Amino acid sequence: MEKATNQLKKIKAHVGKMDAKINRWGAKLDLLATQADNSEAVARSAFYARIDALILKHRAARSKLEELRGAGSERFEVLSKALDTFWNDLEAAIKDLTARFKDALSKG
Asked: Cα separation of 28 and 104, whole Å?
């Protein structure tokens, strides 16, 4: 019984951390969209497509997180590993777009 309780606590803590991170990413994407709105037309059109693609990935990540939240301890490990890979890819893509956007703004 105690082992199951500890596992549930572990799951809740992990999901809570992921939830906070996905909320930060959503805010970052909103900020990037606002910055694109205020940029030159050429930069704006180039970044909108990438921002839109990341928004779709962000929504998919949130959906996967909800699936993880509802998973029992048996499925948690499997889903968590799959989500971690997706998660890392999304995080890297957001960081890359942020860096490219800052670079484009500094040039122009």
From this structure: 17
